[in-house]
Amino acid sequence: MVLSPPQAVLEIARRLRDHGHQAWAVGGAVRDALLGRPSGDWDVATDAPPAEVRRIFRRTVPIGIEHGTVGVLGRDGVLYEVTTFRRDVETFGRHAVVEFAETIEEDLSRRDFTINAIAWNPLTDELRDPFGGEPDLRAHVLRTVGEPADRFAEDFLRVLRALRFAGHFDLQIETRTWQALRQAVDHLDVLSAERIREELWKVLGKTRFAAATLHLYEQAGVLARLYPELAATVGLGVGEADRDVWSITLAAVDAVPPSRPLLRVATLLHGIGYPAARTRGLGGDWRYTGHETFGGRKAEDVMRRLKASNADTHRVMMLVSRQSDLFPPDAPDAIVRRWLLHVPPDLVYDLFRLRIALWRADPKARGDRDLIERWRSAHRVLLQRPVISVGDLAIDGSDLRELGLTPGPRYGEILRLLLDRVIDDPDLNGRDPLLRIVREEALD
To answer: pTM of the full predicted structure?
Structure first.
């Protein structure tokens, strides 16, 4: 195994050793290295108590000192977590009672899954793997450390973490672990909305192929428990293609890069209005007219339930409700500018990205083959910085007052009239042309 920790991690380990203490790299960095993936955050476990760690290192931050964690600022400017070995005394949900331990094995025994219970000594290259995490990684197996039911009962967030790890690393969940996980799903409602949200955000923002985890959400019953609006789309067929909304959603989510997590959220929620909009057409076929409006409302409900920020909630709601709101393929620039009156410019590119992702997810849906041309039209118009609000006009209420018009609602009517003219002919947006229109038409 070849691990390449930052120089700062080696320096931290040497300082601890020089003061008579152990230092082990633990957590995701070790796991990722065993998988041949780039290592992320480097955490250090030690037998040194927190007060001793703060004495040894000059630049520290007590980021979780009550739990034994001290942040040590390395020479590279990165804050590394150095945590004292711990063992569980009592466990009840998220709030476990722990005490400091003396060995790395005791510390590893309280970890969630075997793949996360591996320690590596950066100074001696020694690997400690008391629970067989390395063989599990080679076999692509995810299993808990110890009794699965006990591990999930200690913290039910581990249900969601297990599904994320299995999807992200392409692991098969061991049978007993899977059975205990399924039983633990009924207790997910004890988790806070913030923790559930952050776990979903990690799935969408840190995993290239999020669909694998989301599929496991559905298989494990998590979808029905936490996101019943999404569960209702499973098996709901749409269009001529013999596919359901959920399978299209999964493919569409993976068509959006994880660098755009909020757009992935909107893509995940794009179809939740289909069940409510489902009606029979005259020919006996199912219709879903207005699913976007239903979906926008439901998307807002989901985001608020997850306690997402107001800004994120509004953006996702707008993308879901406007997902089908595009101008005709051969629309002239004036029509595109009018379209921008109802679709905020900051939403345009993500709206097209959403439509393209849905098109890629459902190849038989040929109605969007002209998306690229429409995107080019929108891009060209946006580069012209079009006037799409009365605030962008070359005149305002003070100019109307100078013409002798009495302030009042009439001002708004006149400015909206001018905006309408400018949308048709942007060259009119100058002080003199606009004042001339007012004199000729508003002062009669």
So the answer is: 0.88
